[in-house]
């Protein structure tokens, strides 16, 4: 059953009536451009077919109730929340995400309570942006109940900023705006080229299958959380480097200035700057190849991105490195970790004929190393957040 229908049915079983509507948002993979978002740089995500759906009905008071359908088929309720009483720190656990969205929307005139029941299949803690899918589905649901359906692209980027604020200031995870923008603004069959500084977007066609290729996503099942230390440390490091260099953000350091910038910084900051500067350039190079219809040529840039994250930004882990190495040794044209790192998912660009070989080889290598069995799936660019027809 798809997520929207599952959420509608779960709503019916909790509330004894159908929801007023169902809104859903997808997970994402980022093809390239990692940790560049909070440095005002470039990113290139696409939406996954995996979605998180929010079935919702308005209430006559200012109470928000949220329940979620677990993968075991059981429904878990969060304690009801009174929207005017929401404060950062007042809600913990998974329900802090919907609460944070309601807290932000309150500042934009949406104060009416709602009953929400969630269901979906975006893997959690897998670097596939389940948190942003949750935030964006809830944001569209609350806005939809307030009479705003089908926001245009500009409005969607604004809503993405609101969802980011919920995650930063209410949940307490210092993330950028990549995931929320991907969830809200990606479209079927395309990667989204986003210039975070200007907010400019270009939908770049991405049809790997037409080129005889696939993007194989390999979830290492090493869980990560961005409210933990490593992500924030990297972010603070790059902000400190920008300060020391006297620029607004590392986006302002071009490839030609890189060596002199690194020379002027304390040793530990140089590699962080090198990753951001070279990664921004790799995004531009990948976009140029895709505009030319040369998907098959982006592989070396994907692998270079991984090595930069492994060696300079230091956000990989042995399981991600193994997945990337084995994929590249057994037929992939290139591979890299995707998302925030410290676990999660790797993606590999693989000729269709080699997909099974790569998948089997990675699983075997994980078994030999004593790691948990990875989960692999072919990732296809899919629609962004929307109100679902039932
Ligand atoms: C996580 C964050 F949420 C994004 O904002 C981004 O920084 C990404 O890690 C790394 O590119 O998904």
UniProtKB/TrEMBL annotation:
<dbReference type="InterPro" id="IPR019741">
    <property type="entry name" value="Galactokinase_CS"/>
</dbReference>
<dbReference type="GO" id="GO:0004335">
    <property type="term" value="F:galactokinase activity"/>
</dbReference>
<dbReference type="InterPro" id="IPR000705">
    <property type="entry name" value="Galactokinase"/>
</dbReference>
<dbReference type="InterPro" id="IPR006203">
    <property type="entry name" value="GHMP_knse_ATP-bd_CS"/>
</dbReference>
<comment type="similarity">
    <text>Belongs to the GHMP kinase family. GalK subfamily.</text>
</comment>
<keyword id="KW-0067">ATP-binding</keyword>
<dbReference type="Pfam" id="PF10509">
    <property type="entry name" value="GalKase_gal_bdg"/>
</dbReference>
<keyword id="KW-0418">Kinase</keyword>
<feature type="domain" description="GHMP kinase N-terminal">
    <location>
        <begin position="97"/>
        <end position="185"/>
    </location>
</feature>
<dbReference type="Pfam" id="PF08544">
    <property type="entry name" value="GHMP_kinases_C"/>
</dbReference>
<dbReference type="InterPro" id="IPR019539">
    <property type="entry name" value="GalKase_N"/>
</dbReference>
<keyword id="KW-0547">Nucleotide-binding</keyword>
<dbReference type="InterPro" id="IPR036554">
    <property type="entry name" value="GHMP_kinase_C_sf"/>
</dbReference>
<dbReference type="Pfam" id="PF00288">
    <property type="entry name" value="GHMP_kinases_N"/>
</dbReference>
<dbReference type="InterPro" id="IPR006206">
    <property type="entry name" value="Mevalonate/galactokinase"/>
</dbReference>
<keyword id="KW-0808">Transferase</keyword>
<dbReference type="InterPro" id="IPR006204">
    <property type="entry name" value="GHMP_kinase_N_dom"/>
</dbReference>
<keyword id="KW-0299">Galactose metabolism</keyword>
<keyword id="KW-0119">Carbohydrate metabolism</keyword>
<feature type="domain" description="Galactokinase N-terminal">
    <location>
        <begin position="9"/>
        <end position="58"/>
    </location>
</feature>
<dbReference type="InterPro" id="IPR013750">
    <property type="entry name" value="GHMP_kinase_C_dom"/>
</dbReference>
<protein>
    <recommendedName>
        <fullName>Galactokinase</fullName>
        <ecNumber>2.7.1.6</ecNumber>
    </recommendedName>
</protein>
<dbReference type="InterPro" id="IPR014721">
    <property type="entry name" value="Ribsml_uS5_D2-typ_fold_subgr"/>
</dbReference>
<dbReference type="InterPro" id="IPR020568">
    <property type="entry name" value="Ribosomal_Su5_D2-typ_SF"/>
</dbReference>
<feature type="domain" description="GHMP kinase C-terminal">
    <location>
        <begin position="288"/>
        <end position="367"/>
    </location>
</feature>
